[in-house]
Amino acid sequence: VVEVTAGALNQPIGGLGAVLVARNVSAQKQVERMRQDFVANVSHELQTPLTVIRGFTETLLDNPDDPSARRFLELIHEEAGRMSRLVDDLLTLSRMEHHSMPMTRQPVDIPVLVESMAVKLAPRIEAAELTLDNRVPQHMPLVSGDPDLLAEVLMNLVANAVQYTPAGGLITVSMALDVGSHMVGISVKDTGIGIPAQDLPRIFERFYRVDRARSRASGGTGLGLAIVKHIMELHGGRIEVKSTVGAGTEFIVWLMEYESEQGG
Ligand code: ADP
To answer: What is the pLDDT of residue 4?
Structure first.
């Protein structure tokens, strides 16, 4: 309200007009603020790996025969990989925000997506000493959506479960149909570290992490859940999360059943 100019207050529509203008100004300010925060975040996220890369290349240029040369090269490679993932995720987000994401609507067989996700993530799951329990029955109603984007949702959620679950833990994927609403729910549940209640509403924000060091150590970009949320919005679906610190986290995504959307 402080932002309202005298001109706006003097408009014939009086009070209503002033409130309207005030809201617009503060909304505009908020958008600008968010843009600035975003640019600062991206710069910081890119700066961190660059600092590591520059440090190790300088060391190698000074001492090309350093006995740790190979290790330094591995670290440089790792950091370059992080930058690549970050740029990929940023491009995905930006395409989605500008509605230039190619998206198809077709019948999608979730059990098939779960199966191929399990194959792709098997080495990571094994390395982390975790068990994946795929409880999705082979024959389930088809959902309406884009198979590539939905595969990305699944990959992101299960990859997070792997990242945030200590060795010996269990990741369970299951699926159910809500007959009344014709919605299909897909659940990814872990027995991991959990998310504190006060952080839960913010985890879908870009670059929001509960534990920055932990996310970084596991190679996270902080954009995975922002992308998941966007994909769910594009599908007209929704995502729920329940979590207990020290016990585990469950994400459930809800999508429209294919048949019902076709009016059948
Ligand atoms: P990141 O690349 O950091 O994993 P995400 O956007 O995928 O970024 O997730 C945001 C944050 O949400 C993570 O940094 C982590 O703190 C929290 N988080 C996401 N999934 C889980 C999970 N399954 N268990 C515990 N914390 C999680």
So the answer is: 32
**What residue owns the CA closest to ligand 1's atom 13?**
209
Its ipTM equals 0.98
List Cα–Cα distances, 65 to 58, 59, 61, 68, 223, in angstroms: 13, 10, 9, 8, 38
The 10s digit of each residue's pLDDT in 41-89 is 999 999 989 999 999 999 999 999 999 999 999 999 999 999 999 999 9
Nearest protein CA to atom 3 of ligand 1, as residue: 222
Ligand 1 neighbour 224 (Cβ under 6 A): yes
Does ligand 1 have an atom closer than 6 angstroms to the CB of 160? yes
DSSP 8-state secondary structure symbol assigned to residue 257: B
pLDDT one-digit tens code per residue, 136-154: 999 999 999 999 999 999 9
CA 47 to mean position of chain CA atoms: 21
Q: What angle do CA 169, 89, 109 make, to 5 degrees?
A: 60
Percent helix / strand / coil, the chain, rounded to 5: 55, 15, 30
Indicate if ligand 1 lies below 6 Å from the C-beta of 193.
Answer: yes
Q: Which residues pair with 132 in a beta bridge?
A: 171
Say how many Å lie between the CA of residue 196 and the centre of ligand 1.
12
Q: pTM for the full model?
A: 0.85
State whether the beta carbon of 249 lies less than 6 angstroms from ligand 1: yes
Q: How far is the CA of 209 from the centre of ligand 1 (A)?
A: 6
pLDDT in tens, 178-215: 989 999 999 999 999 999 999 999 999 999 999 888 78
